[in-house]
Amino acid sequence: MNHCHLLDIEFEYNETKQVITPILLHDEHDTILIDCGYPNFIPLLEAAAARYSITLDSITKLIVTHHDMDHIGSLAAWKRTYPHIEIIAHELEKPYLEGTKKSLRLEQAESTFDALPADAKPNAEQFIRFLQSIEPAAVDRTVTHGASLPWCGGIEVIHTPGHMPGHISLYIPASKTVIAGDAVVIEEGTLAIANPQYTLDLDEAVRSVQRLLHYDAEQIICYHGGLFHGDVKQALRQLISAYTP
């Protein structure tokens, strides 16, 4: 039987309490982690997985939704600590994860720096240094839209660009569940676009929300917000309408 476990992790970042929700998919053959948090998050993930009596050394695969620092900050440490784990990402993400191309989030931060007011620049400089410190990690397998992964009862890859060009979400047909990554987030109980002011292509992000409607989803899990409580299809349509003239 396929199990989907939400690893709600509470922590402080920039003196603000935050929660992220990596996911564990688990069956008798595989344990798959989806996204792995900020740097130095392995102990937090270990504690979260232990709530389900799962140890990190049992994880066989790690699927990356995209290369933002809160999703892949611990990726290189994972690969060093558990070299047997297979790292999987969209083919467009591979060069950014492996460090052969500069992070798009870093490019964005650098390109907007000069326009910032003087009092905002120290924090921006700190953020840029943080992005520069993220270690690259080798990707073992790349995927594209529509790929069907045979593990844990079956996983369908949904290319959901906008937040980043290589962003992916996942669909679990057995439970009619979408694992959204940052394609959508939950804010005050409703679905929203993740940080629209920092989304690299907002129009593309809205089209990705439309793409999610193609799936027979009864549940949607967001990296920021966890499990959505409500009518998934209706909530997605309301979000789309908010960005449609």
From TrEMBL:
One Pfam family of this chain: Lactamase_B
InterPro entries named in the record: Metallo-B-lactamas, NDM-1-like, RibonucZ/Hydroxyglut_hydro
Metallo-beta-lactamase domain boundaries: 19-224
Domain of life: Bacteria
SMART domains given in the database record: Lactamase_B
Matches recorded under CDD domains: yflN-like_MBL-fold (cd07721)
PANTHER family assigned to the protein according to its UniProt record, in alphabetical order: METALLO-BETA-LACTAMASE DOMAIN-CONTAINING (PTHR42951), METALLO-BETA-LACTAMASE SUPERFAMILY PROTEIN (PTHR42951:SF15)
Full protein name: MBL fold metallo-hydrolase
Species, as recorded: Tumebacillus lacus
Organism lineage string: Bacteria, Bacillati, Bacillota, Bacilli, Bacillales
